[in-house]
Amino acid sequence: MNKQIFLASLIAILLLSSCASRKDFVYLKDMETGKKYPFSEKYEAVVHCDDRLDITVSSKNPELAIPFNIYGGTFKVGNDGSVTADATTRVNEKGYRVDVDGNIDFPILGKLHVEGLTVGEVTELIKRRIEAGNYMKDPLVSIEFLNFRYTVLGEVGRNGTFSVNGDRITLLEAIANAGDLTAKARIDRVAVIREVNGERQMYMHDLRSIDVFKSPCFYLQQNDIVYVEPKYKKKDREDRGWQIMTTVLSLVTATCSLLWVLK
Q1: Where is the SLBB domain (predicted)?
Q2: pLDDT score for 234
């Protein structure tokens, strides 16, 4: 009975080991312990078409900011000059959508071209326009993305489109969110496809190198597509050869063990 249990355990272990996938790559393998690697702390997301922006204007005199925080509604001016929102006003719950021409339709200020600008630049644009119109002094403008998304495809654990809380995520974080690279991934061929000035550009990355920190795609932008290439030709043959060899070895070992038990 002990021999039978031993044999069953041995066969199970060998079969599991033969089916296991090898994952022998290392991220950032040229990174040295204790050495400092600078990165851009001033990164800001860039606004694109179809983005939705949550824009809030505030002031030391709150009533002056009310007209700039109304989306699709109206406001009333009292006899004393106070400003209040109409009871039928529809509050901006979905934000301001950037249209195909790169504009948003902002209360009082009208159309503003924001495509291609960073969040900070859009903030300054709105502040300047408010001050230039003498609507208020020193307005405070806050902007957040409501639909910051990116897509990960290829040899990762889970393909799909992912949303971000805020507007800041790195390439490495995006891959981790997608379940990490699979054993068949080419760690030296990780592409980011990005829209730049109305055209799509592809940036290739080797995740074994610290050069990824210097890439313009280390921080992802809205609607970026990350594609991880699979291994082709030689790598596939190597993987198949390794699987066949381990399977044959497992079968031979299991057969020898069975003969030993029967004998």
Answers
A1: 150-228
A2: 54
Residue 90: which pLDDT band, with cuts at 50, 70 and 90?
Answer: very low
Give pLDDT, residue 11.
55
- CB neighbourhood size of 189 (10 A): 18
Are the beta carbons of 96 and 105 closer than 8 angstroms?
yes
For tokens 């393998």, the residue is 29
> CB–CB of 65/58 below 8 Å?
yes
Cα–Cα distance between 247 and 253 in angstroms, integer?
10
Instruction: Give the tens place of pLDDT for each residue, 195-208.
Output: 887 789 999 999 99
Q: Which residues contact 259 (CB under 8 A, 6 or more apart)?
A: none
Residue pair 218/170 in contact by the 8 Å Cβ criterion: yes
Cα-based distances in Å from 119 to 65, 94, 130, 234, 235: 20, 18, 17, 46, 43
In angstroms, the CA 157 to CA 180 distance is 6
3-class SS string, 151-220: EEEECECCCEEEECCCCCCEHHHHHHHCCCECCCEEEEEEEEEEEECCEEEEEEECCCCHHHHHCCCCEC
For residue 66, give the DSSP letter.
G
Task: For residue 244, name the pLDDT band (cuts at 50, 70, 90).
Answer: confident
CB atoms < 10 A from the CB of 258, how many? Answer: 13
Query: What pLDDT does 110 receive?
Result: 93
Contact 215, 205 (CB under 8 A): yes
d(CA 103, CA 111): 6
DSSP state for residue 20 in the 8-state scheme: P
Collapse the DSSP code of 122 into the 3-class scheme (helix H, G, I; strand E, B; otherwise coil) and give the result.
helix
Any idea what DSSP says for residue 46? B
